[in-house]
Structure formats: structure tokens, C-alpha cells
């Protein structure tokens, strides 16, 4: 079987939602501990996200640079976005994000990895895709707004991104996990051994 995470749910005696925002909310659960005591656990309830590590024939990764207010930094990231519709197919969402943020489409898609971003305080699950066979999308670019209106785009060689991650110069979760996962896959069984793009995702079940 190998090492793997397993589903488990401890008893919750009460739940309140003190804050509900536009896309996420904050929940407080009273959770029964193994010794029988009950303690409150606060966490952010999140719809889930997708991210795309899109790499071209020159081994360059598409990255975007965006201001992130909670950390007060402008971060280099890979294209990503929320699963806005419950049960939304994550591949379709990833294809949409790649188009909207990079004006690019891809012929080949694989699941690179699935992660929980901050499981101690948020239930956000992210599926990171590998996209290859890139080409520009015809027609006008998607109209962006708010932070995305100031977004920059670049193509950076994968080894340079890896070095920058290890050096502590890049911090976005999906970018860090994505470039290291692709490097590990190449060093292991190869990218063709990655899961298909429609692989099941128990953390966020979806329609085919």
C-alpha cells in the first residue's frame, strides 16, 4: 500500500459560522478529543482551487506576478483560481484559468499533485495540473479587474524556478509545490506516469 493519508472525522458537538464572506467563511467547531475533552477549532471554509504548471517546448514555465494583500508582497505564481461552482470539473476550471491569466491553451493535461494548502487552519484543497503542448488562444484577451489588472506574465526556465524556490526567493504554495513535483516526477517514473487529468479527487468530488 505504501504511506498515504486516510479519511477520519472526529465528533463535532456544535458548529457556528461567525463570518461569511464572498467566497469563503470562518467556522468554529467544538471537537471531541481522544481523551474525551471538547475544544474549539477555528478554520476557514474554502471552495477549493486549481492551479496549472504550464510548460512549453523550451522547458519554460508560464508564471504570473500578482499583488497579494494578506502577505503584503507581489508574488510570482502559476495560473490558478477558485472552484467557483460546487461540483465543478477541476480540469475545466484549470483550462479556464490558463486562458484567463495567460491567454494560452494546452493539448496535454495531467494531474501533477493534490495538496491541502494550510490544513491546520483552512480546508482548502488544490489540484495542480501539468499542461503541455501550449499554444496561444485566438481572439481578444480575457478582461481582468482588481489585482489581476496589474498582473505581469513571464516564461521562466524550470531549473531557474527550482533554484529560486530552494534559495527562498519564491513563496507561492502552488508554484513551489508544482515545480518541485515536476522535477521529482522527471527524476522518478517520468511525467507519463502521472495521473490522468480526470483522476478522482476525493477532497473535491466533481462531475465528469
Automatic annotation (TrEMBL):
In terms of Pfam families, this protein maps to: NUDIX (PF00293)
Every copy of the Nudix hydrolase domain together lies at: 44-178
Question: What InterPro entries does UniProt report for this protein, alphabetically?
Answer: NUDIX_hydrolase-like_dom_sf, NUDIX_hydrolase_dom
- Know the name of this protein? NUDIX hydrolase
Gene Ontology MF terms in the entry: hydrolase activity
Report if keyword Hydrolase is assigned.
yes
Q: Which UniProt keywords apply?
A: Hydrolase
